[in-house]
Specification:
single chain; 567 residues; alpha/beta; eight-stranded parallel β-barrel; three-stranded antiparallel β-sheet; binds acetyl coenzyme *A; binds 3-methyl-2-oxobutanoic acid
């Protein structure tokens, strides 16, 4: 890179528009959408779409709800020409959809374009020619008058050809290509000259499309350019002002939103930002940005994954995993604090309430995405994410302090592996750590005697265990089964906390119990147990905790087989 890039690159000179009004506007309604996936998107592919792929894309665009679709540059190739013919001859264009085709301002191309549209019910003919200084000088070796003449003569020819075919409802669109790099007064002069020939009326409007063929400046500058044209174009009430932003600086979405605030009424772009170089503006992001503000875009992305897979198939280009709204990872949090906030937000979200889940700008379910991938666990994750996955994928709702304890075990795992821990791997670890914990204590069965009649409110318990592989029966009494077990066990345990819930629904549901224990004067630790019987689940949870500590030492070496005075 150069140390002084100014010697090679000049800053774009912004337009002076001190009384600009667009910064105070808000977007409250969607624009007219025009998909150019089959033209600008297609012309930028390594392998342009076959007729079959074009048809699949066309049908998908119709299903999404596009009413204007640029289907081809019919004079460019036989495939493009044949595709337009197929749409018309096989009556594949719904009554409320208008196809659009592009042509350069060259007579032979214009004639072939109009021929391709023979028999169409309604069609937009889109004429373009570049008007900016570099293109005038380098590509056309001409002056302003030369490029204006091209536009005017192209329009005259299209008017003559379309007037001669009254069976089609013709809509004319003119693009001063490279508008974003052109002198603004000259852009207006060319557009006015073109509309002067076409003679649009408020009932039969013409489309003036102002492309950022190459994105040259910050989005506010493009917005100023659009507002200036909006205010100065002749026959404004007979025009639909359209924009066609490219994404060279990565700002196409922002530039389009500001351009709409500045007076544009229509947007041309592609799904997922397909198109020349860095692409056309991404219509999915634009539409869903509106949706996230409570404005229905008039396009349906309820099954975003299906639309993405059609786009990937037709373009042979993958959608980035972090692509707004559509990428595989955009509704996924790995980091602990985000997971924690999402988990809390999800828990409080009312089904019909206003969406307020931190870090998730919209509800993934609205786009047909599931909540499964919302939280994924790696070394950046904390207890919130771990707990969310265990609860949502496996039904275990761990108490808060136990979440912290288990997250430490997960952290050791992720620090060791360096990668992601799947929901299944996490559950396997949970089982190993708590439910199937190998250790000296094993639950075999129990009998509970309730003695409310004697007024003490005590229960007596007899628990059959295997200890160090040998059968052992212990008995004890207390105010509840856990207190009774604590009294019965030959190790000094204190049960500090207890939680239980059903796993699943119905009478056959199992119970999950979690206990926090202290063995002798040791540190606290959790145990977990699952059983159809709630008391058995609690007893298993105590033994699980015991197995996780060194609390077995107290009975080691004893050869006891029964510690029940009654047995
Ligand atoms: C910004 C955009 O996306 S604009 C759309 C661009 N899309 C495409 O180009 C895809 C389809 N195009 C094609 O398939 C081909 O370019 C064709 C079939 C239309 C024409 O092919 P060719 O006749 O071989 O011309 P080629 O593309 O090489 O060159 C362009 C010529 O057209 C001229 N030209 C370019 N744009 C225009 C225009 N809008 N109006 C009039 N002339 C134009 C160029 O100055 C050049 O003229 P020259 O040969 O006298 O120097
Ligand atoms: C034909 C025009 C609208 C175009 O594609 C562009 O300028 O990018």
């Amino acid at each position: 890179m150069l140390t002084s890039p100014a010697a090679k690159y000049h800053a774009f000179t912004p337009l002076a528009l001190p009384d600009r009004r667009w910064p105070d506007r808000q977007l409250t309604a969607p624009p007219i959408w025009m998909s150019t996936d089959l033209r600008d998107g297609n012309q930028a592919l390594i392998e342009p779409m076959s007729v079959q792929k074009k048809r699949l894309m066309f049908e998908t665009l119709v299903r999404i709800g596009f009413k204007e679709i640029e289907v081809a540059f019919p004079s460019a190739s036989q495939t493009d020409y044949d595709f337009v013919r197929m749409l018309i001859e096989e009556a594949l264009i719904p009554a409320d959809v208008t196809i659009e085709v592009l042509t350069a301002a060259r007579p032979e191309l214009i004639e072939r374009t109009i021929a391709a549209l023979e028999g169409a019910r309604r069609a937009i003919v889109h004429l373009y020619n570049p008007i900016a200084p570099a293109w005038r000088r380098l590509v056309f070796d001409t002056d302003r008058a030369g490029v204006k003449r091209l536009a005017v003569e192209g329009t005259r020819l299209i008017k003559a050809l379309t007037d001669a075919r009254p069976g089609t409802e013709w809509v004319f669109q003119y693009s001063p290509e490279t508008f974003s790099a052109a002198e603004i007064e000259f852009a207006r002069e060319v557009c006015d000259a073109v509309s002067g020939i076409w003679q649009p009326t408020p009932q039969r409007k013409m489309i003036v499309n102002l492309p950022a063929t190459v994105e040259m400046s910050t989005p506010n500058t493009y917005a100023d350019q659009i507002e200036w044209m909006h205010r100065h174009l002749a026959r404004r009430d007979s025009l639909i002002l359209s924009v066609h932003p490219h994404n060279d600086r990565g700002c196409a979405v922002a530039a389009t939103e500001l351009a709409l605030m500045a007076g544009a009424e229509r947007v041309e772009g592609c799904l997922f930002g397909s198109g020349e170089r860095t692409g056309n503006v991404d219509l999915v992001t634009l539409a869903l940005n509106l949706y996230s503000q409570g404005v229905h875009p008039g396009l349906d992305f309820s099954d975003i994954d299906a639309i993405r897979s059609v786009a990937e198939h037709c373009t042979q280009l993958p959608v980035h995993p972090r692509h707004p709204y559509a990428g595989d990872l955009v509704f996924t949090a790995f980091s602990g604090s985000h997971q924690d906030a999402i988990k809390k937000g999800m828990a409080r979200q009312q089904p019909d309430g206003c969406w307020e889940v931190p870090y998730l700008p919209i509800d993934p379910a609205d786009l047909g995405r599931s909540y499964d991938a919302v939280i994924r666990v790696n070394s950046q994750s904390g207890k919130g994410g771990v707990a969310y996955l265990l609860e949502h994928e496996h039904g275990f709702a761990l108490p808060r302090r136990m979440q912290i304890e288990f997250a430490r075990a997960i952290q050791q795992l992720t620090d060791g592996s360096g990668g992601e821990v799947t929901g299944q791997a996490l559950f396997d670890l949970f089982r190993r750590e708590y439910l199937d914990r190998a250790g000296p204590w094993q639950y075999l069965g129990h009998r509970l005697h309730e003695t409310h009649a004697d007024g003490t409110g005590q229960v007596q318990i007899e628990v059959e265990l295997r200890h160090q592989g040998r059968p052992l029966t212990v008995c004890g009494a207390g105010h509840g089964p856990l207190a009774a077990l604590a009294a019965a066990l030959p190790v000094p345990i204190t049960v500090l906390d207890y939680h239980e819930h059903a796993l699943g629904q119905g009478v056959a549901a199992q119970a999950a119990c979690y206990v926090e224990l202290r063995v002798a004067d040791g540190p606290t630790c959790f145990g977990a147990g699952v059983d159809e019987h709630i008391v058995a689940a609690a007893l298993k949870a105590v033994l699980s905790g015991l197995n996780r500590t060194a609390g077995d030492t107290a009975v080691q070496g004893q050869e006891q087989e029964a510690l029940c005075s009654s047995s």
